[in-house]
Amino acid sequence: MAIRRQSGNASQISAAGTVRARNQARILDAAEAVFAAHGYRGGSLSAIAQTAGLARANLLYYFKSKHGLYVALLERTMTRWNDLLEKIDVDDEPAQVLSAFIRAKLSLVRQYPQASRLFAGEVLQGAPMLQDYLRGPLREWVDARAAILSGWIERGQLDARIDPHALIFLIWSTTQHYADYEAQVLALTGRESLTDADEQRIGDFLCHMVLAGCGLTDPGSPGSGA
Amino acid sequence: MAIRRQSGNASQISAAGTVRARNQARILDAAEAVFAAHGYRGGSLSAIAQTAGLARANLLYYFKSKHGLYVALLERTMTRWNDLLEKIDVDDEPAQVLSAFIRAKLSLVRQYPQASRLFAGEVLQGAPMLQDYLRGPLREWVDARAAILSGWIERGQLDARIDPHALIFLIWSTTQHYADYEAQVLALTGRESLTDADEQRIGDFLCHMVLAGCGLTDPGSPGSGA
DNA sequence: CAATTTTCTGACCAACTGTTCAGGAAATTG
DNA sequence: CAATTTCCTGAACAGTTGGTCAGAAAATTG
């Protein structure tokens, strides 16, 4: 009787639903910051409301529960990531593909460090809310890429000692490290933040390591040559 | 008037203080499990007490506050790690040293996955309680190893494209990954747990990648040759 | 043994947690 | 304009949080 046209995903943005879309986004942004900083259990609705500049009870008008907000936030994050990672495809040239993948992931991680840490925290605690995503879509994505790597190995384009899954994990972990362990990296290198130059340098290094390990030659980084 | 001989660090274990030492250890173990699973804010004293099989109020007899317990736990973890990592030294042979370091870290991470995740969670949230450790002892440790790597580069024993700090981060992140992201690794590989054989295989792979990237030849893994 | 110290616990506290709800404010609609 | 829907909020809810404390129970000591 009361709430009817909840408009599942902000059907029309123009006139109506603009308030809804804007506030939902604000809440999700605030939730991302708070959950990334304190985890699910540690992040309170009060803190999120304060960050978003809204009343606490108002959060629960848009999201029916803390759990629901958290899930919605994870979904938004996963969608964003999928969109950006899906672009990596079989360009035939292994060195090019691996190099592009490394730099894309590194850039992604640096662009959304909070989302990155949110995801890390969730997995760290056993990924209780992400089991379906991990065992479904993500696993398909990984297996598809692993199959490509295996194909390259069979055709002699890649060192046979490479374990496709392990290689993907290596690229993930090394790039992710600069978001998840940012505090440690900064403390150990005496920096205040990671610059574009740092990203370039790290990208160069990781590409070199991965390609050398795969028995490939570095195609060079975009921005260094012509 | 009341508490006097608090006996800072369990002075005598034989007769007196045996109860204290045993209970402190029990509490720390329980706290490790709970904090690793839910983070600092998310881990409650009730949960820790239940896990330890003690009354909640009893925890605060041994540790004056939740914060104090958490700090004590971090200190125990850091001490353990330091003891185990300090063993890695300049054995002159770069390939041997790197290989040993990788396998030691991998084994450590698999031996204490909870401690590993506890540390990860703390750093993930900006390492608020570990700033001193990171900027002090750990930085010294890292800088010392980085200096050794630089020495190797100067003597032509290591590829000049290697960034010492980035290499250490690479080894840390790739090994740590199998503890911090265990849930993801298991979900993506369809396993239930990581076996000794897995550890061996992962160690082989990581050694190959790192050594190849450093322009070194693999000395082989212990347990495969004679 | 008695005296003293150490260990342990239940009750209590104020502050905070997520959530509900009635009803007011604002926006949209016809 | 009035009617209706959407948006927002303060108050109150039951439950949990970290922490205190008086005093019982157990262990140690001489």
From TrEMBL, chains A, B:
Keywords: DNA-binding. Residues 21-81 form the HTH tetR-type domain. It comes from the Bacteria. GO terms for molecular function: DNA-binding transcription factor activity; transcription cis-regulatory region binding. Residues 44-63 bind DNA. It holds the Pfam family TetR_C_3. One of its GO terms (biological process) is negative regulation of DNA-templated transcription. PANTHER family: HTH-TYPE TRANSCRIPTIONAL REGULATOR RUTR (PTHR30055). This is Transcriptional regulator, TetR family. The lineage of its organism: Bacteria, Pseudomonadati, Pseudomonadota, Gammaproteobacteria, Oceanospirillales.
